[in-house]
Fold each of these.
Amino acid sequence: MLFYDLAHTRAGDKGSSVNISVVAYDHKRYDHLACYLISETVMEQFKHITDGPTTRYDLPKIKAFNFVILGALGGGVTTNMSMDLHGKSLSSLMLAIEIPDITNNQFGA
Amino acid sequence: MADKVRIGSGAGYAGDRWEPAVELAEKGEIDFLAFECLAERTIARENLARIRDPGKGYNPLLPDRIRAVRPGCMKHGVRVITNMGAANPVKAARRVCEIANELGFSGLRAAVVLGDDVRNVVVGTPELELIETGMHLEEILPKMASVNAYLGADAILAALHTGAEVIITGRVSDLSLFLAPILYHLNWSYNDYAGLACGTVAGHLLECAGQVTGRYFADPGRKDVSGLARLGFPFADVDQKGVVEIGKVKGSGGRIDERTCAEQLLYEVHDPSCYITPDCVLDVTDVHFETTGQNRVRVVGARARARTETHKVSVGYHDGYIGMGEISYAGINSVARARLAGEVVADRLKMCGFVYEDFRTELIGMESLHGKMETQLEPYEVRLRVAGRSAFRRSVVAIGLEVETLYTNGLAGGAGATQVVRDLFAVQSVLLPRQLVNPSVRVGQLT
């Protein structure tokens, strides 16, 4: 299933890194993502942009994760040659990650 | 002692809309209106503007914003705090007083926070390491355009104590613009971590203005936001018990709920347990939200601990030029034509002897935002983008000119060529011991 149906995302820049927050629509979806949306999964989706690494931080009280992806913005906002200087559109790349169907998950109900 | 305070957020970046700020000043029942208008590289550009014209160097929209909100602020006793002073806060404050006089509000008192410009200090510390690259400061000193320390709420508090109605700063932490009036109005100590946590988390949710009321959020059919064209900007209510609630003016567009707040809470945050500001280290790991009304959310669970012993200092420096050219192709075989056009431009530039530190050709509509994907359908139309970076202006000007020649010298059906050349500013950071940064406040005639 598509990540898009499980959570919403927002990207922010700091230097040459981007942080992408992932906020699940409910607790069931959060648990599902906690299981399958590991740093390696995210790195696979961003591998053509950066070598990373990617770090995941968990915020269960707001059903959210924060992913920090190093090197995703070239030289940072000021010397980055990309059209998307701040990496603002990268939140949408995250939403396109394929996740195993929620009914096959141990947390599914 | 006041029971509670309400702070409005009037802007989230240098070029932001100002009607929402007027709405807050006139109908928001706010005590303070803070405008955050200074991104990392903005101050480098404003420094150059000041060098060219000593009367400039502050936010170019400051006169418009102040003119628009002044009547509402006067009527309701709202004090304004802003970093729109950028590289020339004294001139900015003088301009604010002139505008107040023109509008018939003579006698306006402005205070200026100084001391963020530490250019003269870092000249004496060339050995400092740049956080981003590990280079030493001395390597970029010759190209330096601006050197500004992120001042904290303590510097702004001193300005509030002068009684000034408008407070103008240069580089301060975005969050401190909001924290300072909260501490001041509630008479909270700068050393009380519970208070610092409340004020800092409120500031973090407010600093990007409409980003907590539905902008940078909306996705039609999935995350709908009504009234985006007349989006309301947020305010925060903080009371003596430390209860923080985010809201907006009734009838304004946009939405505030636990989802908009969650996205903004993590915006530009790396480790959520360690968000460093000049005032404290904020921990938002256990923050959660409670809906307390329509478009009203309570923020619970922020913690703060002692600030670090250093000030983050942004060093802006001139880093050459970037040149860009674009041209579009449509219909059958348009992707192949655009690709070949890109190769022609690259060959031409090489033949002319231009060399670039960084050079790329890409197709807008295919790969310009997320890079080349493994599977990608061909769109009906595409736009070739050619971009290059160089220390020589002439080299980057050539890019747009070569793209334009594709009209008559290139592939069939090229349309809508455009070209852009920009000065490039890079920003890196150093950490400067606190004792080397000495903020001060200036009030009075400011002449």
Amino acid sequence: MELNINGIQHHVDVEPDTPLLWALRDDLAMTGTKYGCGLAQCGACTVLVDGQAVRSCVTPVEKVAGASITTIEAIEQDDLGKRVVAAWVKHQVPQCGYCQSGQVMAATSLLRQVPHPTDADIDAAMVNLCRCGTYNAIRAAIHDLASGSTDGGA
Amino acid sequence: MTNRLKKIFAVVIPASAVLAAGAAWFVTRLPASSFEKTGSQEEPSAQLVARGEYVSRLTDCVACHSVPGGAAYTGGLKMVTPMGAIFATNITPDRETGIGAYTLADFDRALRSGVAKDGHRLYPAMPYPSYAKLSDDDVKALYAYFMKGVPAVHQENRESTIPWPLNMRWPLAFWNVVFAPSDVYRPDTSKDAQWNRGAYLVEGAGHCGACHTPRSLAFNEKGTDSHSAAFVSGALIDGWFAPSLRNDPNTGLGRWSEDDIFRFLKTGRNDHAVVFGSMTEAFNNSTQFFSDDDLRAVAHYLKSLPGNAQRDGTPWKYEPTQAAVVQPAGRQGIPGAQTYMAKCSFCHGTDGRGQGQWVPPLAGAASSLVPDSSSSINVTLNGSGRVVAAGVPDSYRMPSYREQLSDGEIADVLTFIRSSWGNRQPPVAKGDVKKLREQTVPASSSPVILKTR
């Protein structure tokens, strides 16, 4: 199976129904993407496939062969992604950090779709779970990004 | 007393006595078996036991005669009827609590006529009206397997909770006269051998009609073979709507090819659907063990059953997701859309089309197109059971949303699903969700998996 991850072509020797998350973590040792629930419920495993936030734990590799996959390891190669990470640092969003690679991917996807999201947009799109309850910090960071005050170099 | 009255009594009383005696004999008699003349049993060959094991996969005895955590074939499965609960029995060869004392003829009477060794009538929860079609050879092989291939386990049967007088079994003798076919499968000479094999498997051994054929007030299946338009036309059973297996494009197999049916029964999945509800059990222990030839015969036969356009409605056609649903702000005005995007779309797709054979589509799925919403509600509340194909557990499974979503949220999201992408069903009622929530339990992730070797 050929997978295009972060702009690099990778060959993985897995069954077609293998979850993308296993291919990333076990076969390619890209452990930035986290395993949370395995049932698409929490969002810790969120990656971008052709710019869309998907839950890699429920995505068969067969479905994404040929697509452009972006993981947390390369999110800062993307201008918007770089700004999101900077805002996350500025607002000191992560606490334990386990869900945060997924949160960053979800926020990047939201801001790409809706550059100036309202609170309602954030509620609708940011459905990833955070056990530490960093939701308010996430909201503040996204608003900050939307207002344009956080740039990549912050 | 006048002479006339005396004369009447002289006729009526003996006549009634004769009738009563006749009825008493009839309701307790042992029906005929082709094996009555079979004398003391010789040791069955290993080949016959192996053949019987295969037949037991076709007949799926384990589905009802086992419970999770229990030994195979020791019974105990609870089946709820409007009169009370009944429990499947121990059919291991234990002499006291199982069927170890059964002769081949006794076994045959239970299997094909619904009469136990002591003469009591079985409830037709036991699909003997279907097994009646089994060939003598298959009955003999099955007997050999249950006597020699299944370990004996001493385990008492559980009494039913049906109160007297409803628990009397003898009226079933009359039920059998009216409703239970009593003849082995007779090939239809106008059809080819593959079709006939398929009919034998679907109508007889596989007893597909037990779930998929609607029942009338007397609990009999409304049709028992291909001559009836009601046969496997879809039915509500135990909180699931078992869909039509006829050529109905929406609610049946109309859009499936023979190969699609073959793959579904062999691997548990195809691009149209993945097994769920009670079908998971039928797949886990039965259909995947059918030989390829037998599965192809089943597919060939099912594709010959005509659909019913009036019942099925206008054939479904895919329509894209409304643009507003994809917009975070837009979907908040559409009931159920936000729940769909947050809880369902990551697996079933924002387009409702699932992920190939791995995650089933909701767009155009029989469960989304059938007017009865039970299966949609049930699988959302309780998730799906573990599908174990060729010994390997599934990678993706529907989780239970019982604890996460309220009755209203489930009704809304299912209303959204059942009215999107060309699906056109009326709103799902909150009360129906509430009712099923009370009647059902979450699917088990430790299913009964029968290992025969």
Amino acid sequence: MIPLQELLILSGVLFAIGLIGAITRRNIIMILLSLEILLAAVNLAFVAFSYSLGDLAGQVVVFFVMIVAAAEVTVGLAIAVVLVRQFNKTEADDLRILRW
Amino acid sequence: MEQTSLLFYILSSFAIAGALGVIMARHPVYAVLSLVAALFSLSGIFLLLHAYFVAAIQVLVYAGAILVLFLFVVMLVDMAPERLFRLRTNMLNLGGALFGLVLLWEIVVAACFFTIAPPATGAGTEGTTAAVGALLFTRYALPFEVASLLLLAGIIGAIVLAKKRL
């Protein structure tokens, strides 16, 4: 039986790493990758609680989180491709206008 | 029991190393590959936690589909390497790292003082496909259908964005 504390600490470490990446990187693809780390950390916390509470609902929530992540990545990468095609820029700092 | 604990430490160190590789890699291809490694380690941890269905989905959906999409886009976009190397100014880097570390400290403190009622240790904690699927199609049937709607919206959004003329 793995203690819940250690699982939560691992989840927190992964979340902090992903947050640091999302703040400090400027390439939009790297920001999307950091968001994936954040979602994975949250998934780990859900599975950990599901494990220690003996309730499968947490794993169902993880399933839904994965669906949301898939939709987010699909649209986010499509936006990245459009940005590269239209402006030839992939850095978030360069994207300041709110129109095409 | 001892083996489970040892395996957990090995897998979690792999996961943390992979996540650090993602945010420190200079080229996005390496970052995507480190994320694959981290997610594989996480799916191993899910297996240790008896979440078999979630572990399989993690490998199939994340490593198999989402990260292949990432790799595809990274190679399609063909970013100039020197623009990738440039991080933000040191000030912002430091601020981001500090912010993340403060959050980490908060989470660790919260987790250390966190206590939970002892688990029921009853049946039904094994996250097999049958068990999760039964729950998914009975109690969570409505969220399941809403999720399919979300995926449909995502598909349509991607198609609209990929059109030649916006």
